[in-house]
């Protein structure tokens, strides 16, 4: 089976951090022997894409850069050294483009912390383009009947919160508090938490967001714009404190509060990445309450397989708004203003 590949494509590129987002014709990438070329049909927009565009993390970025790392599409070319992929397969392009495969972390199936990892939309051109080259080993194989329009955000937001929930070690029937509950990650975290048998307190701002998170399965909602003491409210709702806190909001203050409202032997999971943020712990309280604070970063290949399976079986739905690739700048503006419910998905052919 062969598919005709054009020489040029549409993409959104920025040449400097925070610079103009340029919608233009660019060459279709040439693949290496270890890569596949994916015709990206849809790409989710992650808050970290906004951060990457602004250059806010102290890491090296590829410039000029095509952002994006939540792409879903069709394999149109397969490198000479690639096994297990065929032209016509459905594929997901996620944050991790490739890893070394040889370090202790890769060998222990914890490749997300490989020091040699390459990242789509950061150190490699990502999914805000119609064709994307990615390492075949890290690409996500998708079921042939999956909804390409909705699955993109699962490849980052879904995997990330699913891994975070697993890392929290919260058990069925226990309470988990999710800050930033109405956003792209939070809206998926609620559903994964419910599918895992957890009880959810959603934390966000505004009545509309409160109604939204309850439609997704949150039992309770704390509106930080109205609460006099978020920690006190969560402790009261959960009769002693949440067993775990999942921080997906990019708010240093929200993260700080989460340490206060977990119960003894509780776990605080850090996922959201506010630029230059720090966490301050009262050592005595942390020790006496035996609180665990743990960072959780995207997910492994197996986490990816599991997260996609939850979605494919209909246990998790991705609340999305589909817009054209040309509207990326508007999407970023709404993200900065905190106006996004669920996840924006870009149709790369609009």
TrEMBL record:
GO terms for cellular component: cytoplasm. Residues 18-346 form the Enoyl reductase (ER) domain. The keyword Zinc applies. Its EC number is 1.1.1.1. Its cofactor is Zn(2+). Keywords: Metal-binding, NAD, Oxidoreductase, Zinc. Gene3D superfamilies: Medium-chain alcohol dehydrogenases, catalytic domain, NAD(P)-binding Rossmann-like Domain. InterPro entries: ADH-like_C, ADH-like_N, ADH_Zn_CS, ER, GroES-like_sf, NAD(P)-bd_dom_sf. The keyword Magnesium does not apply. GO terms for molecular function: alcohol dehydrogenase (NAD+) activity; zinc ion binding. Belongs to the zinc-containing alcohol dehydrogenase family. This is alcohol dehydrogenase. It comes from Candida orthopsilosis (strain 90-125) (Yeast). The lineage of its organism: Eukaryota, Fungi, Dikarya, Ascomycota, Saccharomycotina.
């Amino acid at each position: 089976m062969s598919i005709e590949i054009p020489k040029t494509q549409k993409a959104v590129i920025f040449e400097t951090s925070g610079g103009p987002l340029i919608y233009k014709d660019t060459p279709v990438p040439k693949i290496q022997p270890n890569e596949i070329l994916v015709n990206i049909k849809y790409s989710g927009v992650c808050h970290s894409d906004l951060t990457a565009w602004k250059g806010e993390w102290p890491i090296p970025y590829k410039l000029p850069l095509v952002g994006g790392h939540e792409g879903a599409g069709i394999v149109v070319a397969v490198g000479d050294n690639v096994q297990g992929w065929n032209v016509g397969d459905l594929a997901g392009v996620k944050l991790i483009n490739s890893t070394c495969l040889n370090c202790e972390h890769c060998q222990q199936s914890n490749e997300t912390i490989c020091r040699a990892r390459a990242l789509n939309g950061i150190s490699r051109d990502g999914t805000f383009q119609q064709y994307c080259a990615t390492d075949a080993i890290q690409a996500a194989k998708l079921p042939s009947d999956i909804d390409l329009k909705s699955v993109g955000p699962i490849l980052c937001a879904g995997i990330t919160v699913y891994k975070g929930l697993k890392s929290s070690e919260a058990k069925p029937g226990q309470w988990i508090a999710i800050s930033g509950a109405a956003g792209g990650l939070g809206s998926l975290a609620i559903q994964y938490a419910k599918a895992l048998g957890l009880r959810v307190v959603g934390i966000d701002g505004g009545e509309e967001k409160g109604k939204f998170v309850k439609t997704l399965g949150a039992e309770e909602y704390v509106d930080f714009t109205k609460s006099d003491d978020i920690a006190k409210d969560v402790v009261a709702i959960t009769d002693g404190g949440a067993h775990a806190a999942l921080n997906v909001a990019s708010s240093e203050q929200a993260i700080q509060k989460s340490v206060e409202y977990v119960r003894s032997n509780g776990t605080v999971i850090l996922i959201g990445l506010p630029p230059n943020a720090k966490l301050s712990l009262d050592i005595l309280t942390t020790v006496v309450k035996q609180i665990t604070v743990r960072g959780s970063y995207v997910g492994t290949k197996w986490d990816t397989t599991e997260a996609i399976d939850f979605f494919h079986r209909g246990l998790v739905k991705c609340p999305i708004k589909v817009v054209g690739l040309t509207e990326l700048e508007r999407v970023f503006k709404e993200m900065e203003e905190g106006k996004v419910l669920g996840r924006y998905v870009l149709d790369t052919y609009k």
